[in-house]
């Protein structure tokens, strides 16, 4: 691949353009908002100049509802040898393309499983896709050359290709992406009018659950409008669980001992089902989740503190498998959880204490 066109210079389009430009591909940028394209170009993502003839690959990076019309226009203009989109749903845009009579041999639907709470070209980074799954949804009509161009794009962005059926993809992202977004927003909405005294008690649990609630509503309206059925199906199942959980909690308030036992059993069921589901979430490097233990370090909010604790862990010969940070409300300190293999806990604990760190049990 020597040349590419990115149509839509938001977070995903600009990030892909940055990655391609850094690897020697000439990228031509286009957006319905010229300022967005110029901003992406100023960041080094490519040029706003029109290409002199067809490019190797056109990347359609617009909301799902606009994919078909945008791609059809590009095909009519003979803009590229191959075309792909990066929208977060796949079945709807493909059916729209069929209805418009587009040449599907030149097209493949894709979806990089990467993103941020912020949107727009200024949020883009060349390494956004590194190590992330990038779903490809070829059809029997997809030309081998187009599939190879898509695989080359994934490789240049240092992502991991995953081949799926388009409708299976949409059901999957409804479960692992779209429904969690709505649930996060619903939990965060409970905080909007909560007493200040309650909000001040926010700890890491509520921060984890509500992190993605900071996402841009307009972007999510576009996404959810393109995949409403599968999301509604999963939310209906969640609603059933919520109803049963509410009933179980009410039973715990009963004076009847049998009802209280039923309530306890109901709560235990949902918690254990949650344990079982969480265990299926892939762990480090996509492997089965490993069991790690936390070494909790009190750390000050000062420049260089994180670097120092990581350096001390490295000097002790301990590999940090994961990191979590819990900030202390109203204090210039936090609790840093260093996740390590169980056998490394005494080694790391002793080494950090020797270097003056305060370890919390």
TrEMBL record:
This is Prephenate dehydrogenase. Residues 294-361 form the ACT domain. Belongs to the prephenate/arogenate dehydrogenase family. It catalyses: prephenate + NAD(+) = 3-(4-hydroxyphenyl)pyruvate + CO2 + NADH. Gene3D superfamilies: 6-phosphogluconate dehydrogenase C-terminal like domain (1.10.3660.10), NAD(P)-binding Rossmann-like Domain (3.40.50.720). InterPro entries: 6-PGluconate_DH-like_C_sf, ACT-like_dom_sf, ACT_dom, NAD(P)-bd_dom_sf, PDH_C, PDH_N, Preph/Arog_dehydrog, Prephen_DH. SUPFAM superfamilies: 6-phosphogluconate dehydrogenase C-terminal domain-like (SSF48179), ACT-like (SSF55021), NAD(P)-binding Rossmann-fold domains (SSF51735). Its EC number is 1.3.1.12. Pathway: Amino-acid biosynthesis; L-tyrosine biosynthesis; (4-hydroxyphenyl)pyruvate from prephenate (NAD(+) route): step 1/1. PROSITE patterns: ACT, PDH_ADH. GO terms for molecular function: prephenate dehydrogenase (NAD+) activity. Residues 2-289 form the Prephenate/arogenate dehydrogenase domain. Keywords: Amino-acid biosynthesis, Aromatic amino acid biosynthesis, NAD, Oxidoreductase, Tyrosine biosynthesis. It comes from the Bacteria.
